[in-house]
Amino acid sequence: xxxxxxxxxxxxxxxxxxDLWDRGYLDLGGPATITIGADNxxxxxxxxxxxxxxxxxxxxxxxxxxGRLR
Length: 70
Prior knowledge:
By secondary structure, the protein is mainly β. It has one domain (about 10-70). The chain has one helix at about 25, and strands at about 10-15, 35, 40-45, 50-60, 65-70. It has a five-stranded antiparallel sheet with strand order 1-2-3-4-5, with no helix packed on it. The longest helix is centred in the middle third of the chain and has 4 residues, at about 25. The chain is globular and about 30 Å long.
């Protein structure tokens, strides 16, 4: 599935706040970011986590979800 033209979520976003982790942990390995591509694939990096490029991003109930491609 291709995202519609002009989709405002496509791009690289800085993660600045999370319910479970403070800013120091989020930026542990570098700036915490999430990247969403037009092909619904994405990458996420925060704390000790880095996931992608075999991750798929989708919206469900107004929230972004990342899942592993099968």
